[in-house]
Amino acid sequence: MYDVVIVGASFAGLAVAHCLRGRKVLLVDRKPVGEEQTSACATVLSAMARWDLEEAVLQRHNQVVLHTRRRTISFASPYSWCTFDYRGLCEILFQRSGAAFLQARAQRVDGERVITDRGDVAGRCIVDASGWRAVLSSTERLRRGVMNFGVNMVAPMPTAAGLDASALHFWYPSDIMAHAMAWVFPRGANATIGMGSYRGARAMRAPLERFTRLLGTEMTTLHGAYIPHALCRPTVGRIFVVGDAAGQCIALTGEGVRPALFFGEACGRAIERVLSGELSLAQGQAEYAAVVARKAGFYRFFTGAQAILTRVPMLSVEWLSRLVASEPMRTRVLGHYWSLTSEWGPPV
Questions:
Q1: Are residues 200 and 147 in contact, defined by beta-carbon separation less than 8 angstroms?
Q2: Which fold has domain 42-84+147-228+314-348?
Q3: Number of H helices, E strands in the chain
């Protein structure tokens, strides 16, 4: 029997495993570690520094540019951002964790056993970090939460569009797709280019093709996924639920990596206390659930901001963009954005 069985070997599952170094941990995923990238791979640089992951950083950014139909608004961020290599980050966390790996498709839980298509594995603690599918916990969940949907690709940086290659770029392209956000995140000679729907899964390929034509670039291989941004139960039965499986992405921006690392760390610490005998399983689950509950107000704020964005006319979107880019609102909003991980100290 393993100390911990973690289903899902992306950001959240790897963060939990990283915090349980020295324990007998098994990661289960249907794909090899670092293979299936669905993330746009951008986050606050201080999150990478907190986890000593600068080796995976591809480019640092201090400017943010908001593009609306009539305006382009550029402003300096009060802290640095970065784009990073998905495979590199996953491999670093996996190697540090010392966990074992099983490539298999998890199907369900039966007591202490996780049933997979390659046999059963047992663990004293079980973690569902399987992404939006929540393969171990969704059938027992009282609600699934709200999900956006995003697609992205890595392509050469669209220099013909005249974009600032040192900035993160966001569009609200209502003339291409209503209730959606598009982005270009430079990463050296390349960029992550994508589009996200605030109305769940929709046909995204044609709108993204129109967007890439406007940028003067071409489509490459697409990756897509749902983006769950409404907190769900962080524990179900014996299972700890973390990352996208628990609805821990951030509404409006769709960021999942920083929440996955933060809540993965909280989950791992609670499990370590269970394994060491300091807490019972129920007490460990309660400790982790309390961390998630303390962040509920943060999630309500950004879910509300997304709802406002999708309901106001374009002129109001442009006015709101200028407002957010101006001081002191810029520092307040971005300060609140970091507050999800305020326990990590101030960003730089």
A1: yes
A2: D-Amino Acid Oxidase; Chain A, domain 2 (3.30.9)
A3: 9, 16
Is 248 in contact with 263 (CB distance < 8 Å)? Answer: yes
Contact indicator for 2, 255 with CB cutoff of 8 Å:
no
Strands 113-116 and 119-128: antiparallel
Reported as a single tens digit per residue, the pLDDT across 27-37 is: 999 999 999 88
Q: Using an 8 Å Cβ cutoff, are 215 and 207 in contact?
A: no
User: pLDDT per residue over 184-242, tens digit each?
Assistant: 999 999 999 999 999 888 899 999 999 999 999 999 999 999 999 999 999 999 999 99
Give residue 156's identity as a one-letter amino acid code.
P
DSSP 125-191: EEEE--GGG-TTTGGG-S----EEEEEEEEEE--GGGT--TTEEEEE--TTTSSSEEEEEEEETTEE
| One-letter amino acid of 1 | M
Look up tokens 């749902």; give the residue: 226
CA distance 135 to 99: 21
Low-confidence ranges of the chain (pLDDT < 50): 140-145
Closest CA to 204 of 71, 316, 68, 38: 38
Domain edges within the chain:
1-36+86-145+232-311, 42-84+147-228+314-348
Strand locations in the chain, DSSP E?
Answer: 2-7, 25-29, 42-44, 57-67, 72-84, 100-103, 106-110, 113-116, 119-128, 147-156, 167-171, 180-187, 190-197, 223-228, 235-236, 239-241
Give CA–CA dist 171/194, Å, rounded: 10
Q: Provide the phi-psi class of 204: left if phi over 0, else alpha when psi is between -120 and 50, else beta.
A: alpha
Distances (CA, A) of 173 to 193, 249, 287, 295, 309: 14, 22, 42, 30, 12
Amino acid in position 320: L
